């Protein structure tokens, strides 16, 4: 049975779903008094577009072989993945209440044993691309119409293993492999430009990849660039300009956002479910 999405959800509804992903991220962080909130918030729009407009998947049959694959290589954004999977119907939303709690199954970094829809256990940065490249190589023969998507951080691109994977993908012409780089311009201990100066567009192009740029928060533009990347004859990377801590003004575009734990005020404004 095909895993293709039968009907795309309108972008206006995807926007509301993205807002709900953000709310759930804040709620999970507040309840558990932990998390890397800013790193999850900045990819919420990307996750919404992928799971509700792009990925050919079937939540009722998550292990169906003939499907797209998604790997969250920047595992510290796991809260965004869990919220998205719950809203997409992979498991009940109530399970999110156990995020980083004793007896809960969802930890900071995704683990395949935690629930359906999690393709790869990640957290040690720099490995998602190489894993994705291996999967893409196999899928090119077994289900050539499906794609492998890998979401990475810009700070993660400092890892040497990223470029080993990039070379492998270019050598084997893995046109079914698409990387999305969350360019929020911050990493754990500072601005990415201060930690390691690197022009990512030139770097990826030099490694034989087709490069696309887009806003990571403009849903329509983001989807258009991902579709262009899907049509590329080579492996493609979408550099998505994002805002760390997106939707919480007091932490947006700050280093504080990376390890931010939602306080009472933040929860009341951004995390508490509003009564209709």
Describe the structure.
It is a single chain. The protein is an alpha/beta fold and 276 residues long. The chain has a single domain, classed as Thiamin diphosphate (ThDP)-binding fold, Pyr/PP domains (Rossmann fold, 3-Layer(aba) Sandwich), CATH 3.40.50.970. It has ten helices and seven strands. The strands form two sheets. It has a five-stranded parallel beta sheet, sandwiched between helices. The protein has a two-stranded antiparallel sheet with strand order 4-5. It starts with 10 loop residues before the first helix and ends in a 5-residue tail after the last helix.
Strand order of the largest sheet: 1-2-3-7-6
Assign the CATH architecture. Answer: 3-Layer(aba) Sandwich
Rounded mean pLDDT is 94
- Mind describing the biggest β-sheet? 5 strands, parallel
Using only C-alpha atoms, the radius of gyration works out to 17 Å
